Amino acid sequence: MNKTSTLQNALMLAPLIGASDTLLTALSLALLCLLVIAVYGLKMRLLRAWLSAPWQLPAAMLLAATLTSLAALATQAWALELHQHLGLYIGLIALQCVVLECNGFFTETRLLDRLRLCALFVSLMIALGVLREVLGHGSISWHLPWLAADGSVRLAILAPGGFILLGLLLAARQAWLGRSVTP
Question: What integer is the mean pLDDT of 57-86?
């Protein structure tokens, strides 16, 4: 695994852990990521033909920041409460686009591999959102001594609980597939 791949995967951890405390926020951020990354990929494909190599990185940064700002403004205008929860994580989409650009995700990677990475990210966001909402917000009723009075596991909505659940999901995937996992 090379360093840019590790950085790319590490940058995906912030929204996975931070914005997946409910299904709504997880699904919203996953859809925003897919939308911004897809539009970014299409626009950069057009720009790459017109730009020399030294100008591609500044253009990528400007395009990613513009698209992410438009996504943030749209969520602020139409879903203010969601924007207040996702504001920081929406901004990280621009950084993710630039890292993917530098990693050759849009130029050197096959379409099938790009779709696989996006599907993995979205499925992890949804799975974490469902698990954290069910466990952390008491959507199901359990009567165990280490749970809160409403049957919820409060750790599940905090960042350490997100890391624990993500680790359990990746371990379950590894056990299911019977091989090592490198997301």
Answer: 94
Distances (CA, A) of 53 to 58, 66, 125: 10, 20, 35
Longest dimension (CA), the chain: 64
Please state, as a whole number, how many other Cβ atoms lie within 10 Å of the Cβ of residue 130.
Answer: 16
Q: Which residue has the higher pLDDT, 4 or 129?
A: 129
φ, ψ of residue 147 in degrees (nearest 5): -95, 160
Contacts of 39 (CB under 8 A, 6+ apart): 67
Write down the domain spans for the chain: 3-177
Distance CA 136, CA 156 (A): 5
d(C-alpha 138, C-alpha 32), whole Å: 27
Q: What does the pLDDT look like over 24-71, one tens digit per residue?
A: 889 999 999 999 999 999 999 999 989 988 999 999 999 999 999 999
CB-based contact 94:33 (threshold 8 Å)? no
Contacts of 24 (CB under 8 A, 6+ apart): 82, 129
Helix (H, G, I), strand (E, B) or coil at 44: helix
- For residue 156, give both structure tokens: 């599940």
Q: Which two tokens stand for residue 26?
A: 């997880």
CA-nearest of 31, 6, 26, 44 to 131 is 26
